[in-house]
Design brief:
Layout (H helix, E strand, L loop, with lengths): L1 H26 L3 H26 L2 H32 L12 H4 L4
Helix pairs in contact: 1-2, 2-3
């Protein structure tokens, strides 16, 4: 009974986090904000869903879920950084909306 409640809470909070990330991805105005919505809440939501599933599984199967979560935590920020840098270099990021532009100092002048 307690495992069911814990698992349900993790699954519901994780699903809510994923939903909020998806809404942010659609509603936010610019690319850096959308990247934020696509990575942080989605990663947290997936980790919570995996934790909710792991509570209900045997230990051997739960270890696989830990590996899936670790892979997500490692890859999501790297991919978001690469997409953001490519968008910046291609001119898809509006410069007037940036509060701090640390990448401009490192970019070669054309």
């Amino acid at each position: 009974m307690i495992r069911d409640v814990i698992s349900s809470v993790f699954l519901l909070v994780g699903a809510l986090s994923c939903l909020l990330g998806a809404v942010g991805l659609v509603r936010l105005p610019d690319l850096p904000s959308r990247l934020q919505a696509a990575t942080k809440p989605q990663t947290l939501g997936l980790l919570l869903v995996l934790a909710g599933a792991a509570v209900r599984l045997e230990l051997e199967s739960a270890v696989t879920l830990v590996l899936v979560g670790l892979f997500q935590v490692i890859t999501a920020p790297v991919i978001a950084q690469l997409v953001g840098r490519s968008a910046y270099r291609s001119g898809a990021v509006r410069q007037d909306l940036l509060v701090v532009d640390e990448l401009a100092e490192k970019m070669p002048d054309d």
